[in-house]
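@here heads up, posting the sequence + SMILES for the S-adenosylmethionine run so it's all in one place. Ping me if the SMILES looks off, I pulled it from an old spreadsheet.
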Amino acid sequence: MADIMNDFLRKQMDDYASALFVQEDETLRWIQAQAEANQLPAISVRPFEGRLLQILVALVGAKTVIEIGALAGYSGTWLARALPADGKLYTLEKSAKHAAIARASFERAGVANRVELLEGDAHTSLSHLAQRAPFDMIFLDADKVSYPAYLKWAVANLRPGGLVAAHNAFRSGKVLNAQTDDDRAMDAFNRALAAEPTLGSMILAIGDGMAVGIKQRG
Ligand SMILES: C[S@@+](CC[C@H](N)C(=O)[O-])C[C@H]1O[C@@H](n2cnc3c(N)ncnc32)[C@H](O)[C@@H]1O
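bot reply: prediction finished. Complex structure tokens:
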């Protein structure tokens, strides 16, 4: 009973914060409608998590951001809108179908000039992007089993003061009793993040949990 009450209160608080701070405009709703019409899985960030990403971009003064996992370009649009005019979002997507829909989303949102979509497996794209390091921010939202490897890449390729953020840090509570490879990988990622000496880290208990780590300066 107490859990149901907590869930209810949590939803009410999410709704309260969203009503005050989150504006999902016609373009963002259009992107979600395209995702649904094309039968993409409904696994994007939620509007208040998109707003959180924008706050993180602003906090670190990010100009160069990498996103792993574009899907339909929903979170990418939130991120790109938070960048300065000379900023750049590199978004990595292995599915050709998802990549095509994301490209259309960035055009529709008027941010295509600030977004480079790298189609293909993220591990390959990251090895190319390393030549353009350091980056200001990396947002992980793709295959959970690769999160520990993505974290290593982030540690090596973020600038001092740069930020790594990872979606689904709680996996709806399943990190407490991991049953699948994805659950175990998320738990392993959180533990590696907590133990990484070059990062100051925490999980922000917003939505499904946003794990964040800031690379130490000097
Ligand atoms: C959770 S969705 C991303 C949602 C998106 N960030 C949003 O909130 O709008 C995960 C995406 O990662 C892509 N993906 C999974 N594994 C990948 C990999 N190894 N390399 C690149 N993309 C990958 C999937 O095809 C999918 O589109």
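MO: The pocket of S-adenosylmethionine is lined by residues 43-45, 69, 71, 74-75, 92-95, 98, 121-122, 141-143, 146 (CB under 6 Å).
MO: One more: The CA atoms of residues 10 and 64 lie 33 Å apart.
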